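fwd from M.: "can u put these together and see what the complex looks like"

so here's what she sent:
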Amino acid sequence: MRATHRSTRPFEILIIEDNPGDVRLIQEAFKETGLPHRLNIVENGEQGLQFLRRQGKKYVNAPRPDLILLDLNMSHLDGRETLREIKSDRHLRSVPVVILTGSSHDRDIFQAYDLQANSYIVKPSDVDEFIETIKSVELYWFYTVKHFLK
Amino acid sequence: MDKRIDQMEEKDVQITRMTEKMILIGFGLAILFWLLESILAAFAFHKGSFLSQLFSAEPYQLWIYCLVLSILVIFGGYAQAIIIRLKETDRALRESEAKYSALVENAKDGVVIIQDNICQFSNQAMSEITGYEVDSIPGMTFAQILTPESTYVIEEVQNYIARGEALRQAHEATIQRADGTTREVEISISTILYNGDPAIMGIARDITDRKIAELKLKKQAQELERSNAELEQFAYVASHDLQEPLRMVSSYVKLLERRYKGKLDSDADDFIYFAVDGATRMHRLINDLLAYSRVSTYGRPFEPVDSTEALYQALANLQATFTETGAEITHESLPTVLADGSQLTQLFQNLIGNGLKFHEGTYPEIHITAKRDNGHWIFGVNDNGIGIDPKYKDRIFVIFQRLHDKAEYPGTGIGLAICKKIVERHNGTIWVESEPGQGSTFYFTIPENGGNQL
């Protein structure tokens, strides 16, 4: 079951999150797994799409991520719009998108899946749980899931 | 009014005098006839002296006297009977008029009679409502005592009269008083005959105070609704927006604890402990406040809910505690009510949860009842727990009010406040009957028809 397909390059993760506190927590959580990974961090949906489409000088050499962690409530193109853009772009829609948000609103959950989100995770308010959740996300997408490799 | 009664009494005396006169005239005429007969007999026909004629009447003459006298007395008596009857009718009429006139004069409602658009009659109350002298109202037009906005009443009345329909209706109108101020009245209008011609009678009741009170009440209700909505919004926004920074605070102090506990000195460990503890408590309070405000903001429309189902769902949610305490839960047959199903579940869950939590000694026993009472269902949740001192029976429903030490019975004190809010949203009431050590029974009502949704 454990397909270690990533011996050649690190697991590329794009984090689209406007709260630096959360970014750091995600980073801390990933640190604890000890898996070879690289975190690419952008602050909003607009930058996220530029990264994914390698638009602008900054993102010319941006790698294609293996996983996107997307926050919902952000200024400058929020998570819903970003998700809609990604999933309607045939070059990008195969990249798994995990929604990581503070909202546990039914409406948000439904809307996210309706827009083809690959999973929806509510940020646990307890830091231990938060770290455990991030770890499980990484392990799941790193080991459990079979990825399409270009 | 007194003048009129005086006039009537005068008339009465006149009638009595007239009757007396008629009988006297009857007698007078009889005597005169007798005298004339005697004079004629004595001087014209020379049948003896006048006196002999007067006192020695012949039998046929006596007959005639008797006949004339009888006719006159009968006529007089008959006339008197007629006059007495007339007098009685007149008195009855007078009394009736006096009665009605007293009614009209002393009525608290203003009365006005209008003919050809001109006021013909008004009472004292009308004068008080309009501020015009009672004698000055007759002669005024109806429009003169109404505000321009209220003259539609006249038009409507005229339309009715033009169609020849009998009229009996009430309108709200505004009176334009003599001093320029206004009074709100309710005018009942009917068509009557006045001096033989059709007229309109308006009975005006001053409802200004009622109107003012209604307006005030309405304003207060709106104000209350607004301030409640504002408070709800505040509670929601405050708790919702506080979540995010608080999550940061608690996350990072916990991360500090996770990484550095035992690695710094004991002071640092203490400080971290208090920071973590404070953040945790704050987090719980905010969550509870959010749950509290969600009772109204996320409430669903009422629909028929089988309260047994709601109870079972509540028990399923409490499964862990339930098994842990070895509680025994029984219930009577429960009705289907119009309610928000998930809130009814939460209500049962909080009340039963309290029964399980505030308990010592043997296993908890909880019994749920329902009975119908005067348009309501009264639900009862009875436990054999530690009970509540009756003096705290109101305080326990206030948000974040706790009666016990946190170490003894944990919790923020939100459960019953949420229960109260849920019950009130369902137009019901909640109360407790309890004695310390005797267990508690929480009762709540739900209207059978669901009441008006709040």
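replying to her w this: Chain A has a mean pLDDT of 87.
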